[in-house]
Amino acid sequence: MVVCVYLPRFELVVAAGGPQALAGRALALAPLVSSEQRVGEVSGAAEACRVAPGMALGEALARCPDLVLVSPDPVRVAESWEAVMRSLESVGAAVESERAGLAYFETDGLRGIHGSDDGAIAAARHALDRPARMGGGPTRFCALAGALAVRSRRPLILDGPPAQEARHWLAARPVGLLGYRAETEALLEPLDRLGVRTLGELAGLGRTVLADRFGAAGVLAHRLACGEDSRLRVRLLEEQLQETLSVGDASSGSALRRVLDVLVRRLLARPERRGRTLRAVTLSARLLTDGGWRERVVFRQALCDPERIRLALSVRLQLLPAPASALRLTVERFGPPANEQSALLDQARAARAARLREAIAQVRALAGQDAALRAIWVDPDSRVPERRVMLAPIPE
Q: To which H or E segment does residue 361 belong?
């Protein structure tokens, strides 16, 4: 059985300073500077004024003049969500994180530890330090529907194979559940224009019709509406290293890039790195105004050269929405050790050169010595095109 753990309005709760800050107040996450002017998560009081997440800022303020915008803080959200994930993993669960505030785990491997599915769910709830909605079902999407439907601390469990009870129960659920999956989120607007309100109506359209209209996203939406889903993608636990530095007066410009250079060199000098290269890092900042900024960077190849790492990260500094008071660099994933990586690259270059030599030899054997030639620049400034480049045999 798959269990879904859902913490409503997680990003807004963290940015506002706790769930008590939302009581009776119309709050909404302010739009990011680099994105469209649309509000993020909203409180219950704002929803009562018909303000919804993703609504245009002007429309949200027109519907609720008392709406208070809260600066998003992705740095604190990531730290808080990491603490939640580690709490779930402390009971033995292998967790998949869909987004901040939404996680899944399977109970099949936990029955031997906690005795039953109910015991595993109770242990997970006890490990969390905050109230959460929990649902269970044969697939991830069924568990999500159960967690969103429950309004108490008691989890909603859907038993039976997906083709029977779960599919029958999903038929009455709103089609807005597709918005919790990144692959099907874009289908909500066209489905609303078509008048499709429930997952049962969506499943009644047929997989062929949805595939013809929406492509792969339509096929996935039909599978979800029928109670089908893929297996969990459990996150891999890796060691994380991080360095933080207060920037002081160097809150922007070239001075901030020098601070970034110090962070990179400090991180590479850590003994815990043990000569490993860096494959993915997270660059975050605490802003002078309020809130934070966070950007994940995956390198095209694993790096250990500080200059190349700094150049790759300095481009992301231009995305800062406001001057920063502190920078933090965190390693999310390591690559192979530097000596192993260079050996692998040398082997790849040698293999490629051998294949090229073999290809040239085969071409010359079939079409003669002049079949494989290379272009050499002789007089690039010549007015006569024929004098600029000449052809010469490729050396074996």
A: helix 338-367
Q: 102 and 215: one domain?
A: yes
For residues 197 and 217, what is the distance between their CA atoms, to the nearest angstrom?
Answer: 17
Q: Are residues 125 and 193 in the same domain?
A: yes
Residue 257 lies in a domain: yes
Q: Which domain holds residue 95?
A: 76-225
Q: What is the pLDDT of residues 227-273, one digit of tens each?
A: 888 888 888 777 778 888 888 766 667 788 888 889 999 998 888 88
Pair type for strands 373-377 and 389-393 = antiparallel
* Angle at 240 (CA atoms; ends 234, 246), nearest 5 degrees: 135
- Picking from 218, 235, 228, the residue whose alpha carbon sits closest to that of residue 137 is 228
Total domains, the chain? 3
Could you report the per-residue pLDDT of 18-70, keeping only the tens digit for each?
A: 888 888 888 998 887 655 788 888 888 888 888 888 888 889 999 998 888 88
In a domain, 361, yes or no: no
Q: Is residue 106 one of the residues assigned to a domain?
A: yes
Q: Give me the DSSP letters along 116-174.
A: SHHHHHHHHHHH-SS--EEEEESSHHHHHHHHHH--SSSPEE--S-IIIIIHHHHTTSB
Residue 264 CB-half CA count within 13 A: 21
How far apart, in whole angstroms, are the C-alpha atoms of residue 214 and residue 208?
10
Q: How far apart are CA 10 and CA 84, in angstroms?
A: 11
Assess whether 179 and 213 both reside in one domain.
yes
The pTM of this model reads: 0.72
